[in-house]
Amino acid sequence: MMIPVLDLGVCPYEPVQRLQATLRDAVGDRAIPGVLLLLEHTPVITLGSRGSDADLICGGGLSGQDIPVLRSERGGAATLHAPGQLVCYPVVPLPRQDLRAFVAGLEATLIDLLAPLGVAAQRKPGAPGLYVSDRKIASVGLRCRRWVASHGTSLNVTVDLGLFDRIVSCGEAGLAQTSVLAETGEAPPMDELKSGYVRAFERVFPFRAGRLERSDHREVLERLGVNTMEPDRSRS
Predict the structure, then answer these.
(1) Does any domain span residue 167?
(2) Are 167 and 45 in contact (CB under 8 A)?
(3) For residue range 159-192, what is the model confidence (pLDDT) as tens digits?
(4) At residue 182, what are phi and psi to the nearest 5 degrees?
(5) Could you give phi then psi for residue 82, rounded to 5 degrees?
(6) 33 within some domain
(7) Bridge partner residues of 38 (DSSP)
(8) Would you place residue 236 in the very low, low, confident or very high pLDDT band (cuts 50, 70, 90)?
(9) Which residue, of 15, 151, 216, 235, has the greatest Cβ tally within 10 A?
C-alpha cells in the first residue's frame, strides 16, 4: 500500500491535531490509503487522556505559562513539543488491528533510525517510548478510531531540554529527558533525519512510502483530495 509522505516544516499543534482527525476519518472511509506527516511543532505543552494540571510544574495550572498548554486527544499524560524535536504522525490503518504491535513498530522505527547515529535507544517495560539508560529520548502517544491510528512519536534531536522542566514528563516524576545532541555531541540536519525515518518506517511496516514532499499544513487536505464538505442529503 503506497501512502504519501508530507513534510510540514514547523507548525502549531492545534490545527495539526484537527487535521489528523479529518485525515483519520478519510482513511476510515477509504477515501485515502493513509498519510505520514513529518514535522516540528512550535513550543507547546500537551496533556493527553491521563494528563492533568498536576503535571504542570511552572505556573500552577494553565495560567501563568509562557508556553501554551493544550488538551490532546492522544493517550498518555503530559509532554512538550518544540523545534528541534522530530514529530512523526502516521495516520494509517492499524496493521492487523493490533495496537500493541503498532506501538512496538513505532519504537522499532526510531531504534533503527538512531542506531547509525551512535544512539543505543532501548525500551522500558510498561513505559511506551525509548530511553538511553534512564533518560527518555522519544515518546509515543496515539489515538485510534475505527482501527485507524493517528498521532505518533516525538524524538528529541536538538530540542532545548530545559523546557521539559515545566512538566512531569509522561506522568513519571523525576524523569530526565535527553536528545541526540546531548548523547553524541552532534546531530544530523532535520531533513536528513526525516528521510531516514521514512526508510526505517518502510522496513518495519507493511506500507510503501511515497516521495517526501513539503506541504503547508493548511494545504494538506486539498493536496490529498480530501473533501471536508458534508454531503448534500436534501436531494436524496
Answers:
(1) yes
(2) yes
(3) 999 999 888 777 777 789 999 999 999 999 999 9
(4) -65, -35
(5) -165, 160
(6) no
(7) 7, 88
(8) very low
(9) 151
